[in-house]
Every structure is written in C-alpha cells, then in structure tokens.
Amino acid sequence: MIKVSLTVNGKKHEKETAPDTSLLDFLRSIGVKSVKKGCGKGECGACGVIMDGVYCKSCIVLAIQANGTEIKTVESLGNAQNPHPLQTSFVDEGAVQCGYCIPSMLLAAKNMLDKNPEPDEKEIRKSLDGNLCRCTGYVKQIAAVKKAAKIMRENKNDQ
Fold first, then answer.
1. Domains of the chain, start order
2. Please, are residues 112 and 54 in contact by the beta-carbon 8 Å criterion?
3. Rounded to an integer, what distance in angstroms lies between the CA atom of residue 84 and that of residue 63?
4. Could you tell me the mean pLDDT of each successive run of 10 residues in the chain, 159 residues long?
5. What pLDDT is attached to residue 118?
6. Would the CA dihedral through 56, 57, 62, 66 be positive or negative?
7. Which of 26, 34, 135, 158 pairs as cysteine with 97 (C-beta 3.0–4.6 A)?
8. Helix H segments across the chain?
9. pLDDT score of 4
C-alpha cells in the first residue's frame, strides 16, 4: 500500500491505496460520484477531471501519479443555488439528457474556456472530443458552450 495525498475541489484527501489504483477509483473511494466509470481505457471520457489545470481521463492515470496534485471535478463549478454559466447554459439549451457524460463535458469545456474565452465552433468541438454521448448529436452541447462563453465574457467585462 502507498499513501496518496490529493487536493480535490479545495479539500485535502490522504489515503493509503494499492499501487495500481487508478485516479478514478481513488476519487470514487473518497466519495466523488460525479466521476463516472465507463470504458476504463480513456476512450469514453466519462471519467474526466482537471488535474493541475489540465483536463485528463482519470481512468488512465494512476492515483500515485496524481499524488500532490490539485484535482477539480464538476462539483468545483457550482451548485443549484449558484450554478456556473456552463451548467446554466447546458440546462437552458437542453444539452443534458441522461447526464452520464455531462460532468466530464462541463469540465472539458471549462478547461478550454479558461484558456480561450472566445472559442470558435472548431475549438469547442475539439475540447469536447473524446467525451462520448449516446443520447445526442452534440449540437446542443456546442450551443451551450457558445452561450456560456458569451455569458462568461460579459460577466468578466462587468467586473
């Protein structure tokens, strides 16, 4: 067993785990349920997180590789009382259906918008690439990201 220490959504977690434990399984073991287990091969995107500012698939990262890092999950974005513009836009645009892929899509979009607040459609598509959704054709998710980007720019300009 090895000791892994992570900061998840601003809260420090330290736990002993097996050397071959994935970051996904580690996160689930500490109660993070928004990070989903899909393919286990980094292909579906359901397990996406932001690790030290980089969007990654937590099923293909070992917990020990993430030792000492800051992890952000969808819970870091907002809540029902104070949602992030991405969350609001996904609901407003009807981009949420079953919801399985949405936490990871929100994080991928947030990571992209943090680096580029004015993305074109090609950049939005690229940021969402690797997040498989079986319910939609991605049209509504792309519209939601465009809408959120506009709101975020307007909010920044108002400050």
1. 2-73 (3.10.20.30), 85-158 (1.10.150.120)
2. no
3. 28
4. 97 97 98 94 95 97 98 95 96 92 96 96 94 89 96 81
5. 96
6. positive
7. 135
8. 23-29, 85-92, 102-115, 121-128, 139-158
9. 98
Other residues' Cβ atoms within 10 Å of the Cβ of residue 93: 18
94: amino acid identity, one letter: G
β-sheet bridge partners, residue 3? 16
Pairing status of strand 11-17 against strand 70-72: unpaired
Strands 70-72 and 2-8: parallel
Give the sheet arrangement for strand 48-51, strand by strand: 11-17, 2-8, 70-72, 48-51, 54-57
pLDDT of residue 155: 85
Cα(48)–Cα(102) distance, integer angstroms: 10
Rounded Cα–Cα distance for residues 59 and 73 (Å): 14
Tokens 């999950």, residue located: 73
Contact 78, 139 (CB under 8 A): no
Tokens linked to 110: 């947030």
**Among candidate residues 34, 16, 27, 30, the one with its CA nearest the CA of residue 59:** 27
**pLDDT (0 to 100) of residue 101:** 93
CA distance linking residue 61 with residue 17, whole number of Å: 14
Q: What is the pLDDT of residue 159?
A: 59
